[in-house]
Amino acid sequence: MADFDHIIVGSGINSLVAAAMLSSKGKRVLVLERESRFGGCMRTEEITLPGFHHDVMAATFVLFLTSPAHAALGADLARHGLEFCHTPHPTAVLRPDGSSLVLTTDRAANIKTFNSLAAGNGDRHGADVGAIEADAPFLFALLGGELWSWPTAKLMISQAWKRGLRGLAAWMGEALRPTRAWLESTYTSELVQALWAPWSLHTGLTTESAYGAQMGKVIAFALEAAGAPVIKGGASQAVSAFKGLIEANGGELRANADVDRILLRDGKATGVRLADGSEISASHVICSVAPGQLYNRLLREDTAALPEQVTSSLGDFRHGRGDFQLHYAIDGPVKWKTEGLDDVALIHLADSIDSVSKSSNEAERGMLPVTPTICVGQPHRLDPSRCPEGKSILWLQIPDAPRTIKGDAAGEIDTGGVWSEATREAFADRIEAILASHIEGFGESILARKAYSPVDLETMNINLVGGDPYGGSCAVDQFFIWRPFSHSKNNTTSIENLHHIGASTHPGPGLGGGSGFLLAKRLGG
């Protein structure tokens, strides 16, 4: 008899969801994490000064709050300490000239505000989010459901019957529009365009990528419906709640347990060998890792047994842009020069569709952007426990950093072609200068800052290849039924009882826990 029913390699959101669901059904579950802490990209640390609790990477949990995983586990997690903090102002855009636009969780108010900026723009917003709401059962089944399944096939048949084959094809064609095409043809207000353009970067896309428009509308709907919540106490508190639930169910989690190899017998996965040489057997092995980690490291001694389509697809798999993180401990409140931003969860510093397109294009070409698109979080405004009274925290994400540097688009930073400490801090200075132009007395209020380059992020988590937080390029040829490979099917691999989950698999990146949820349901969780 195997030591466990399920061994799960890695402890990110998908692993924790799968472990919680499987253990709740009496399955013997073991989660193995190579690092000293659980949670993957969910980690909260005092990285600047004592008493300032920063979410080092993942910070906003709207995708989990609105997910099937939360519907299944939310009540149990709440009993183990999971609590969300909200604001009625989930996001805003702040342009270089100081003009801004704030989204609220009140659709009627948003429609009124958008219409005041340009006639009809609010009505179009209402139509866009209303269409997502009306299509939710179909759309979210495609975005988050098990695609290779009879229920999905029946859903497609029913939609073809309802819309007609030509109507369904038209719907699909509309869904494939890029963000730029959607915004420029729909909204005449530059502020409304600027509000939504940066969100394409948070889906691993650009303003010119196929299906960016549909993802933009989904984000607009989700933010308006559920806001941009953070976890009380930090993202690590979500990990603690999961850990408590899994252990209460009889599951086990081990940190500092580096899986060195997946054990196979007669073409089946039978367990794992750790770096210390110990072996643990299991009926199923579930890996929440990047494809390179799975096939080039954990299966490195068995590559000859892999089908040619796997090895060739692995060579074609592409990672996306890198991510850059910047954190501040602030003395006193954040004094925005533009009114109305104090309680906004996430503020984008961006000028337009063109500015977002330019910065992401520079990053994709290996250049430090001249004017990066900056996302600013204010978690202390939602959760005052994050820092000492009278102080503030700023969480900055720059989703258009180059994985591999070829140079500086501004010609000012001598990168030497590497993400060195000097390059990281020089780029952080560029970002800080943009931020400081919008905040009164910002320089004097800084108590401490901490920057993380794409290389730093990969050092913390080997699955963030080149600092890519999305588990691989999210271009349409590497998404949906083609994620991670064109022949992929429902988190299975070519090896029996070996399963692949995580951001690199359908339904892709984010904190929804989708792949862990889908696999757990299939395995009886």
Secondary structure blueprint with pairings:
Layout: E1 4-9, H1 13-24, E2 29-32, E3 44-45, E4 54-55, H2 62-65, H3 68-79, E5 84-85, E6 91-94, E7 100-103, H4 107-117, H5 121-134, H6 136-144, H7 150-163, H8 165-175, H9 179-186, H10 190-196, H11 212-226, E8 230-231, H12 235-248, E9 252-254, E10 259-265, E11 268-274, E12 279-288, H13 291-298, H14 308-316, E13 322-331, E14 346-349, H15 353-364, E15 367-368, E16 374-377, H16 379-382, E17 391-401, E18 407-408, H17 421-436, H18 442-445, E19 446-452, H19 454-460, E20 498-501, H20 514-522
Parallel strand pairs: 1-2, 1-12, 2-9, 6-14, 12-20, 15-18
Antiparallel strand pairs: 3-4, 5-8, 6-7, 10-11, 11-12, 13-17, 13-19, 14-16, 16-17
